[in-house]
Specification:
Two copies of one chain form a homodimer.
Chain A: E1 5-11, E2 15-21, E3 27-34, H1 41-58, E4 65-71, E5 75-76, E6 81-83, E7 94-95, H2 97-104, E8 110-113, H3 115-126, E9 135-140, E10 144-150, E11 153-154, H4 187-190, H5 192-205, H6 220-228, H7 232-256, E12 260-264, H8 271-285, E13 295-298, H9 303-316
Parallel strand pairs in A: 1-4, 4-8, 9-12, 12-13
Antiparallel strand pairs in A: 1-2, 2-3, 5-6, 6-7, 9-10, 10-11
Helix pairs in contact in A: 1-2, 3-9, 5-6, 5-7, 6-7, 7-8
């Protein structure tokens, strides 16, 4: 077969990463363009196509691209559209992204899904979920995303938007306000921003000493650094975060009985502090039949390549 | 085709219902045998086979049976076994049910799953979910069961036991003890027994007048009758039950983005009191993209036939 490469594109609010990937998951060439400077989506697509052609040339892959996979916030696999994405510069509209990009790339087929689903396909194709038919990918970044795989297939649901586990209820009463407009969502607690919120809340509510008190602003990275230094409050914050995650995972397990939960994203780097409380809460809240049966694994994709790899994996399905 | 009927068998703790069903979902002949008198599973299978042969004869369907479908508590679709079923008289063991029954029936193929999954297949084949590819069946009986359909297929998960939504957390703190050993499960609140528990709890905790106070024992049916007479406490109990269900349904929607939630079972008869609070809580707790988008529908299978029809529908897949 002469079409033996795929292109992966990860559309983020600030930047768009793209690269050419081979069947083994090696990124042969990659580049980055700005997303946030493009309020006109047509100009963005034109710039993106130019960048794609450049990486294809860099990878010596002209005429050998089997498909282009795109991971994008609010991406709809069924329609190839990006719908109402508040963090993208062209804003709350429906963009026929796959169609526009395919046209700009002389008809190379384009598949599109949201970033967490792309990560799940990437992990299944090249990473920690190779050989798994049933798993749940949880991305712990600025928000909490999810990609659910059942019987080897990503779950898209009736409308293409299945797998919004970051917006299930972690706390039902007096829960924190979430960006989505609801209260108590998992994302409001167990994302990078959630961890920072917990830190700010606990510093305010307790007198507990902590190196975090000396900081003007707190990000989840600061909490992680403090925990590594043995800061007790920071350690408790991760314990709390892990417990919240584990309780929710127990409910996800009751849904699809996965072989594993796969964690990915910036906050997953804190695995030395998260694994134990997650497993403890998860196993305390599942039915006996699943106790100590469901694995917790971490992404095996190289972090710098993961977003491109995840999106590129969709390209093989075209 | 000369094999144009299926047999449906619903294994319950007290009785086993079975019948011969045609492709339109008509039960041509049916009968009932006792389950609870059989502590020896081999004798039970022998009696069951005898009863099956009798209904096949009654339906004039000898030699025309395409398959046998069985719905049973703790039934595992992958292995055809019933595992650790506390309510069945042969108790906490693994029974190779499908294999034993097929052997007793001269090799007619047997498929087996749990009762809620069977109900989902039944509803998809003959009932309210005809034409739906993505829906969640919730059975509101003594317990709360579920059957999840994604892309036209029942979700069995890695081990065959997916879809235990009755044991997801409805209440995270100080939740009621559930039969499964956990606390706060949906089943402890939103089943027939849960409704009766709410009634007993509220009668104890409040002074509110209610016709329920005059009863020695309270079952969900009593609460239903009281609500129909306008009893305010009974009406509030259904409002509470509906709210608990609706909140949980919102989380289920975030998982698989279904077209509809389908309700079935004894408690679903109280739909005139449940529909409104369920929809209100569900739509208040879903992401904006699903608000007022997911239907709530009730089983369309004739109640006396539903268990047999649900199980029989599996027979067509053989």
């Amino acid at each position: 077969m002469n079409s033996s490469y795929v292109v992966g594109i990860d559309v983020g609010g600030q930047t768009t990463k793209l690269g050419v990937v081979d069947a083994r998951g090696t990124v042969l060439a990659q580049t980055v363009i700005r997303t946030d400077t493009h309020s006109d989506v047509e100009l963005y697509i034109a710039d993106l196509a130019e960048a794609i052609n450049k990486v294809i040339k860099d990878a010596d892959a002209e005429g050998k691209i089997r498909g282009i996979g795109v991971g994008a916030p609010n991406g709809n696999y069924y329609t190839g559209t990006i719908e109402n994405a508040p963090n993208l510069p062209w804003g709350r509209t429906t963009v026929e992204f796959a169609k526009l990009l395919s046209a700009a790339m002389n008809g190379i087929p384009v598949a599109l899904t949201n970033d967490a689903n792309a990560a799940a396909v990437g992990e299944m194709t090249y990473g920690a979920a190779r050989g798994m038919k049933n798993f749940i990918m949880i991305t712990l970044g600025t928000g909490v995303g999810s990609g659910i795989v059942i019987n080897g297939e990503v779950v898209y649901g009736h409308d293409g938007f299945a797998g919004e586990l970051g917006h299930t209820a972690a706390v039902r009463n007096n829960g924190r306000a979430c960006n989505c407009g609801k209260n108590g969502c998992l994302e409001a607690y167990a994302s990078a921003t959630g961890v920072a919120r917990t830190a700010r809340e606990w510093l305010e509510l307790t007198d507990e000493p902590s190196v975090l008190r000396s900081l003007d602003t707190i990000a989840s990275k600061d909490v992680y650094e403090a925990a590594k230094e043995g800061d007790k409050l920071a350690l408790k914050i991760f314990e709390f975060t892990g417990k919240i995650l584990g309780r929710s995972f127990a409910d996800f397990i009751a849904f699809s009985a996965p072989e594993a939960i796969v964690l990915f994203g910036g906050l997953a780097r804190a695995k030395e502090f998260l694994t134990e409380p997650i497993l403890e809460a998860m196993n305390a809240n599942v039915l006996p039949l699943w106790k100590n049966k469901v694995e917790l694994v971490y992404s095996q994709l190289k972090e710098s390549d993961a977003a491109i790899l995840g999106a590129s994996a969709l390209g093989w399905e075209l």
